[in-house]
Amino acid sequence: MPSRFDLEGRKALVTGASRGTGRAIAYAFARAGADVAVLARSTDALQELAAEVEKFGRRAVVLTCDVTEEEQIHAAVSEAIRGLGALDVVANVAGGTPTAGPFVEIPVDAWQRDMRVNFASVLHFCRAVGPHLLQRGTGSVINVSSVAAVAGVPSRSTIAVSKSAVVALTRTLGAEWASAGVRVNAILPGWTATAETAAVRENQQVSAGLMHAVPMHRWGTPEEIADSAVYLAADASRLVTGSCLTIDGGVSAYVGGPTLLDLLALGRLG
């Protein structure tokens, strides 16, 4: 019996594939049986990834694209379709490091940049690939958002707003495209061990403070996010659309402060 998590014969496009979560998703798709078009601003890191994809006996297409440029996005999607013959799965992973700081001090141009990188890029990829998937009557779009979209994070207002927009787009398209056989879902990662968070993780005091607010008390890994992407791409999730899969170790479910056991021990409850 074939596995419900098998992607054999599927054709996938992964943006932001040069490192971190995007790279892990592209690798996981290939391991599950998919041919993969990998996309980033530079092809240097993608060549090695393409070679790894091909080791699984899968086809790899390397694409260069600035995800803030709409014309480049449409051209890249067309090239991916030509290179693979079709697209069944699109994982929108590309994003930028958000501007940090008090809300009232973040300049307008920083807001525009973060919205362009984190939201408009996803919007344009969905616009570019939508007609192809709808015409074929099948497909899975996976948008990588952030737990910041559903949990207030002080001094991170641009990522909260831009990633919330990704969630809204995901739910809207999930409902709009469902009858055509195209599913659209989002993944909301929490703190993940990538190159972007290396400096934070290397500061033991800061890292310990962050992990104290994570009920599972550890960083997530790109591979764990990738496993969830395989699920959303595969038949195992064939009834799932317009959904947001939160992978944050319990952060968004955690109220914060002392735990109930701590309070009981102090005699402040009961």
UniProtKB/TrEMBL annotation:
This is Short-chain dehydrogenase. The lineage of its organism: Bacteria, Bacillati, Actinomycetota, Actinomycetes, Kitasatosporales. It comes from the Bacteria. Belongs to the short-chain dehydrogenases/reductases (SDR) family. Coiled coil: none annotated. Keywords: Oxidoreductase. Pfam families: adh_short_C2 (PF13561). InterPro entries: NAD(P)-bd_dom_sf, SDR_fam. One of its GO terms (molecular function) is oxidoreductase activity, acting on the CH-OH group of donors, NAD or NADP as acceptor. CDD domains: SDR_c (cd05233). Gene3D superfamilies: NAD(P)-binding Rossmann-like Domain.
